[in-house]
Amino acid sequence: MPLESDKDFTSIKPPPIFDDLNEHVKEYLLKPERLSIHQWERSQNHWHRTPDIDSLFKIDDDDIGLDTTLEVVRDFLTGEIIGLEEVSIPVEDDEDSLSMSRTPLPPSLATRGTITQNPFLPAGFEEELEKMLEEASRTSEVVVNIDSHEPGKFLGEDILCSPPGRKEIVMFASDGVTLLDQTSESSKEEEKVEDIQININLEEVVNNNAHLVGLWQDDDEVKQEPKPKKVDLEVESYAEDDNFLESTIIKPPVALPEIPVLNITNPTIRPGVTSTEWAEMIDVSQPVPEFKEKIKDLAHAYPFELDNFQKQAILKLEEGHHVFVAAHTSAGKTVVAEYAIAMSRRNCTRAIYTSPIKALSNQKYNDFNKMFGEVGLLTGDLQINATASCLVMTTEILRSMLYCGSDVTRDLEFVIFDEVHYINNAERGYVWEEVLILLPAHVSIVMLSATVPNTLQFADWVGRTKKRKVYVVSTPKRPVPLCHYLYTGSGGKSKHERFLVVDQEGKFQLRGYNEAVAAKKSRENEYKKSFGPKGGKQFGNPKAEQTMWVALIDHLRSSDKLPVVAFTLSRNRCDHNAENLMSVDLTTAKEKGHIRSFFQRCLQRLKEPDRKLPQVIRLQRVLENGIGVHHSGILPLLKEIVEMLFQSGYVKILFATETFAMGVNMPARTVIFDDVTKFDGLQSRSLVPAEYIQMAGRAGRRGLDDTGTVIILCKDGVPDQMTLKEMMLGTPQKLSSQFRLTYAMILSLLRVATVSVEGMMQRSFRELHQILQADTNKKLLQQAEKEYSEKCSTPLPSHLAPLASFYDTCVAYIEVLNEIMPLLLTQPKVSKEFVQGRILLVSAGPYINQLCIYLNSSGPRQTPYKVLVLNTVEEDTNRYNFDLDEAWYRILSFSAMYDHIGTERSTQDHAILCIAPKNVIAVTKTCLKIDSSIIIQDWEKRQMPRFKDAPVGASCASAVQELSRLSHAARTGVSALEHISLTQSLNISTGELLQALDRMNKLKAEIETQKKSTAIANFKNEFATVYERKQAESKRDKYKRLLSFESLALYPDYQGRLLVLRELNYIDEHDSVILKGRVACCMGTNELILSELVFRNVFTDKNPAEIAALLSCFVFQAKTHVDQVLTDKLQQGVKAIEGIEDELSSIEAKYGVSQLEGQQERLNFGLVRVVYEWALEKPFAEIMDLTDVQEGIIVRCIQQLHELLVDVKDAAVAIGDPKLQAKMMEASTAIKRDIVFAASLYTTQRESTSS
Predict the structure, then answer these.
(1) What is the pLDDT averaged over residues 840-855?
(2) To 5 degrees, how large is the angle CA 153–CA 155–CA 159?
(3) Which residue ranges are recorded for the region named Disordered (predicted)?
(4) By CB distance 3.0 to 4.6 Å, which of 208, 605, 631, 1108 could disulfide with 1175?
């Protein structure tokens, strides 16, 4: 029965008590038009207002922006509108804000940033910071009190307790974990808000139209909302310090506030420590006692005892300071970088490690990944683990991230600059300066460099720019000393001829040098006996050089000097040397097996055809013998194989170019220089000390070798002794500024109102001298302004106005003369007229419009011409309130009082002067026969007190008498002297010179017209009044200019570039960036021509392969001697690009924009056909048959081309061109394949060379 009853009730369902909730939710979400809030017939649709036509003409620009707006208030559950509220409009959008509290970017953009985002406020821009805080204080959004010691306050922003982009605040106790009770605090704040708010019930106003009309009318009786209280920014003032830049600084210096600072170093300056205001050099010779006790929570422990300089640097890192480590090669600078990374991991912050080259980035990523486990890598075409606490990248990528407002900056504690001496690089050095200037205040800077002479000066610039002290740590000497030798052997009995020229103490051994010279000479004599005096050079044939290398390697092997790095400053010689040593076998059978096995495992990532490339087969063959090759022409994958085998000891001799010495710690026992000269692109020259030291520093392995061995091969003779001394023992090159302006930098900064281009230029290393002089100039300006106010307090009398105009014209004329006379007098046809005895017309000091005899040009550099003049100076009885200077006399020379030449009275009194080209008025055709040396000797003798009364020599007296006769004749008009034309044979090569000549002639005519105003009684006294006032005015203006942006070295170039951008429509007349400018910001390099190509639709009729081929001209830099066969479309594209390039160059020349050396050759179409075929998916072996360019250079070019294609794709997105975007993506995909983009061993390899 129970079973049957169950069956009977199976069809019965529960009663439909509730509607289906799923249907309700579905209808609510998919059909919003049915919601009750959309019943528009119940809403107000017309408000009556009285028209006022005149109000259209009364708009004030300052009042256009609204302070508030209306927002609806909705029910959180139903979404119904339940009211309206008035809310404040933010002063600026988050994209325009430089504040750390702005809303973060989406995760996909957080790492790299975006060009629509502004950079965070850099440290050192105090004026801009003050402006931002004052703006924020006006809206009562930020309580600005920089000196506040409340927890969670940073530069007036609650960024330590308020999530970016949110208003909610979470307060923590000092332990950083315990939450503080905010109830009482929030209630107090609410009471304050109620005091200043105006509560308006907007619903009641809406229900009554009459009240509504009045709401928008101006009513003086309406209660004014109380203005926010003015925030006083407390600035400490130092009476004794008038530094110009510091006067704008908000004290204390911008830094991470309230971070506990460990007091672990003695603040008192020890003996031997040199320091400046913003930098201090630490004495590393002093021991560091109780190092581990001072740092209770050591971020990273090392299995070896640290050197003093490493301990000192780590202590300063723990204190939160900037650190500059300038140490010898292989001294262990990387330890400081590793500790900074470990500190960021301990503190749950982030660190960025920058390197100068991409290959070094890959190697450092591999090293740090083994040490720390969680490391990211950012390159132009690769992004690995971008959320890691430590990111490795090139300096250019960090610059891009800073300009694009990357959110990585928020958590950034350390930026480590490896090889910071790369700032000297002419092409890329400016990038380091940009990044150092752009870094925000909370970032600590760690700089690693080779030893340079001006470390303290550079550190002072960084500290002065960032307003935080920099501590310099240097090493006194190398941990493994070097011994330098000359090798003169050529095989056979001479294979052991190695002579010490610099010992491990750094002393030059003259005996060793002389022995090397003698040995080389005897070798040459033996060679001449065998082959005759015309037998050619001993090493002119490959066979002799091969013999020498075989003998040298045998000598090194028997002396236990392997492994060796042989620096050969030519890619072709590297390859030839390795090929010539195929008969030399330096590895055992077991080692050969290891090398072969490792090589084949690494090649597995290549396609089968790419494994059979000639370079791959050739390199495997020499590697198995223990010989490696490393240069830019080698495929990147093969270079990495060579590096790994060298590190693990399987490569015994490595032929490498200079790039191998950059940064990577791969020391050897011996370094050989195949030659000590290099071709730098312009000329063949000897290595400079910095280059030699960088490469020689690879010798000597710490812990393995007592000394490192450096050998210079004397193939074509022993180098000159002075050349060797300068190269081996000379002072390395100073760090110098390579800062320059680029269009991308200008456009990026014009988008940012608070970080100006002028501000960047002013803070560059180039302007350090001006910055140091700023406080002195400020004091002088104050004195000049005081003097000006005293002398010019009353208006100039009207009768003196013509004299004031005469003064202005004369000053302008003198400026042009100072510029153009040196050019006129140094012309070949004019300069040959400067022979002894030539009569010149000069104005020099009180010798106004006088004839003189030219003696010689042996005077000082500024005043080279020695001349003999008659002493016709008359004493001026007038009394002046100023010193009579050169300017006074030069202006007097143009007046009617001195409208003559020569002298009326005959005199034998004379003097010898040294004058400048600007003092020469004319060169006459008259020449006297004199002996200038006798005249000068006679004059100098009579200047001695002993001989002051001696009679004038006959030669001198004769010359003076003839000069007096000519001078008197010229004054009385008896005879006129003919002048040589200074401009007739002038080669006018520039428009600027033509303009200067034209201006000179116009001003001269104006002076002649105004000269009549000087023909007045008591002229000197009257003109003295004008002169005194004008001098006070010009003195004041001079110091104002020195303290303004106009004094910046690059300011004229900046103004010229602005004119170029304006003419090409990248910016408008207000210097606001418009569409073309925003597109140009997307481009990494060549921003103008690439933007023009996009906007002029050059790529519209081209397919992706053709576009990629044409764009290769911007990234290919090598030389090729192969003539290419191009398709018609490619030829048209080449002509179009060249045409745009010529047009841009002419516009730049029009506005005087300076171009770098070699910039005119920035287009190189030598690889167009190769890239075209590669983009059509031809195999790599086939495209190699089309060119003589080496494999590694082609790979590097295509990799850079891929980055360029991505930039152009972003530009297509910015202008809304989907077709171009699709073509760029297709081209990028077509070239990104096979061996060109084979994954790096450092980023993917898991095998070991010894497995």
Answers:
(1) 90
(2) 50
(3) 93-113
(4) 1108
Mean pLDDT, residues 315-336: 90
Indicate the angle between helix axes 589-603 and 614-623, nearest 10 degrees.
150
Q: Which two tokens stand for residue 281?
A: 């050099």
What is the mean pLDDT of the segment spanning 876-886? 80
How many C-beta atoms lie closer than 10 Å to residue 1132's C-beta?
16
Retrieve residue 1043's tokens: 């303290």
Interatomic CA distance for residues 786 and 798, integer angstroms: 24
Yes or no: say if 1107 and 1223 are a contact pair by the CB < 8 Å rule.
yes
Please tell me the distance from the alpha carbon of residue 771 to that of residue 277, in angstroms, as a whole number.
13
Place of tokens 């105003």: 1013
H/E element, 713: strand 708-713
Q: What is the dihedral of CA 532, 535, 539, 545, to 10 degrees?
A: -80
Tokens representing residue 312 in the block: 């000192």
Residue-level length of the chain: 1251
Cα dihedral 207, 211, 212, 215 sign: negative
pLDDT digits (tens, 9 = 90+) for 531-588: 444 444 444 567 888 888 899 999 999 988 889 999 998 888 899 989 888 888 999 9
The 3-class SS string of 321-381 reads CEEEEECCCCCCCHHHHHHHHHHHHHCCCEEEEEECCHHHHHHHHHHHHHHHCCEEEECCC
3-state secondary structure 285-315: CCCCCCHHHHCCCCCCCCCCCCCHHHHHHHH
- Nearest partner of 605 among 1238, 1207, 1056, 1242, judged by Cα: 1238
Q: Which helix (H) or strand (E) holds 500?
A: strand 498-502
Q: Which helix (H) or strand (E) holds 316?
A: helix 308-318
Determine contact, residues 741/1050, Cβ cutoff 8 Å: yes
Three-point CA angle 1111, 1112, 1113, nearest 5°: 90
For position 263, what pLDDT does the model report?
Answer: 45
| Those residues with Cβ within 8 angstroms of residue 755's Cβ, 6 or more apart along the chain or in another chain | 98, 119, 121, 122, 125, 128, 438, 749
Residue indicated by tokens 């640097």: 313
Which of the two residues, 88 and 1141, has the higher pLDDT score? 1141
Question: In the chain, what is the straight-line distance between the N-terminal and C-terminal CA atoms, in Å?
Answer: 79
Q: What is the pLDDT of residue 185?
A: 47
Secondary-structure percent of the chain, ordered helix, strand, coil, rounded to 5? 45, 10, 40
Q: What is the pLDDT of residue 256?
A: 35
Q: Is the pLDDT of residue 880 over 60?
A: yes
- For 1193, the enclosing helix (H) or strand (E) is helix 1191-1215
Measured CA to CA, the distance from residue 34 to residue 31 in angstroms comes to 6
CB of 447 closer than 8 Å to CB of 324: yes
CA distances (Å), 510 to each of 319, 485, 486, 503, in order?
49, 12, 12, 11
∠461-467-470 over CA atoms, to 5°?
60
36: nearest Cα among 80, 84, 82: 80
The answer to whether residue 764 scores a pLDDT higher than 60 is yes
Helix axis angle, 1191-1215 to 1168-1175, nearest 10°: 70
Distance CA 1205, CA 1108 (A): 7
Burial class of residue 1161, CB neighbours in 10 A (0-12, 13-18, 19+): exposed
Least confident of 131-140, 1038-1047, 1057-1066: 131-140
Average of per-residue pLDDT across 254-260: 38
Residue given tokens 């970080």 in the structure block:
755
Structure tokens at 1085: 């390099």
Computed over every residue of the chain, the mean pLDDT equals 81
Whether the upstream peptide bond of residue 252 has omega within 30° of 0, thus cis, is: yes
- In 3D space, the residue among 173, 177, 138, 132 whose CA is nearest the CA of residue 155 turns out to be 132
The answer to whether the CB of 729 falls within 8 A of the CB of 502 is yes
